[in-house]
């Protein structure tokens, strides 16, 4: 299913809303939604720190919910919208669940494997490939992360300063 | 922590036991365990079909249990024992959970990314690398899968034959 620019924008907004849910609870702000026939059937945001579980990235949670809603591990004819380029685990979960369309916002120079470090989703040695479109509302998606990490660094500096003042 | 050959054999047996749990319920027989300080802290076997969830591979379930037991998403100083070479999703989960030692049984020519199609766990562009040892009790691990798929093919042939007899 092909989406219009307005629809792509709208579904990425839903992923950004998810990322904001992560930000509010102090998690790295990354969000994802899965769309089938124009409807969101799975949502997720990163909860690694709260759950203390390395597997609970936004995409995994969105895929798990979508599988539950679809009553199938095969998410054919769906699209996933993610604020950040997927890591190997999440790209692998996209392969395993047969999601054919991937839209992401910001690129990830550290772990992005759908175009940046490599492209696992166009590698024909795996039994599934996906169409990948990056850079959707890139500035907003990247700003979410930049603001989050800037605040963390400022907090750390303040803590260090207060600690040295107490000496 | 370095393991003796006997220990490696014993932990792979626990992974094989998990694979057999999958086999008994009709799932592709793949199992995994995670070991910390000589004790198993996470176990998992493939339940993709029963759960209709593409993410529920043996390794993901073992990692989730180990994170819960360790009360941490960081599984440093652990080892994972898996009957089959990990796929991209599971290799990615190993990176994300910082597991330093990976032992697997059979190689996977279709999706194995810790030596066969590529090696995601020695790629220094990611923020974690792992020591990978393949071929542990390889014949038994491979036989589990071969027997499983042979039985499925035989069942399919019988079904086809019965259907044509009814015509």
End-to-end Cα distance of chain A: 63 Å
Query: What does the overall shape of chain A look like?
Result: elongated
Low-confidence stretches of chain A: none
Oligomer: homodimer
> What pattern of helices and strands is seen along the backbone of chain A?
HEEHHEHEEH
Estimated structural class of chain A: alpha/beta
Helical residue percent band of chain A: 40-55%
Tally of individual domains of chain A: 1
Average pLDDT over all residues of chain A: 96
Kindly identify the CATH topology of chain A. Cytidine Deaminase, domain 2
Count of DSSP-assigned helices of chain A: 5
Largest sheet of chain A: 5 strands, mixed
Strand count of chain A: 5
Domain CMP/dCMP-type deaminase (chains A, B): 6-133
Cofactor (chains A, B): Zn(2+)
Protein name (chains A, B): tRNA-specific adenosine deaminase
InterPro entries (chains A, B): APOBEC/CMP_deaminase_Zn-bd, CMP_dCMP_dom, Cytidine_deaminase-like, MafB19-deam, tRNA_aden_deaminase
Question: Summed up, what is this model?
Answer:
The structure is a homodimer of 167-residue chains. Chain A has 167 residues and is of the alpha/beta class.
Blueprint of the fold:
Two copies of one chain form a homodimer.
Chain A: H1 5-24, E1 31-36, E2 39-45, H2 48-51, H3 58-70, E3 78-84, H4 88-96, E4 101-106, E5 131-133, H5 138-165
Parallel strand pairs in A: 3-4, 4-5
Antiparallel strand pairs in A: 1-2, 1-3
